[in-house]
Design a protein that fits this description.
Elements (H helix, E strand, L loop, with lengths): L3 H4 L2 H69 L4 H31 L7 H17 L1
Helix pairs in contact: 2-3, 2-4
Length: about 140
Amino acid sequence: MANSTETRPLSELVTGLVGDISGLFRKEINLAKAEASEKMSRAMGGVETLVAGVIIAIGAVGVLLAALVNGLTAFLVARGMAEPNADAISAVVVGVIVTFVAWGLISRGLSTIRGNSLNLDRTANSLRRDAQVLKERT
């Protein structure tokens, strides 16, 4: 029995190839859309973490600077330091601690957003495979 591609006219083969290629590209576009949507969901999780870090940092600055500065100032004054000096040192210490906490949260959120988390790996691999198949078929 003869191979079906040997008995078909060239125009029919070309039409079939064009149909296969256009179907393949439609599927690749759908894959890219799905993967981009998945990556955006992951990036939004990073944005949420970043926003949470910023909100906590703002709240921490207000609350901790009020409570901790006063408490540390009272402790330093009790140890014999002048109140203006104790107040200044307390504000610096509390500010540095709050800054490190905020920096950690913001860094975590930014690292989730950037880097390889937004690469379309599956789409790129699929396109490479498709290009290889097209080379083999032509």
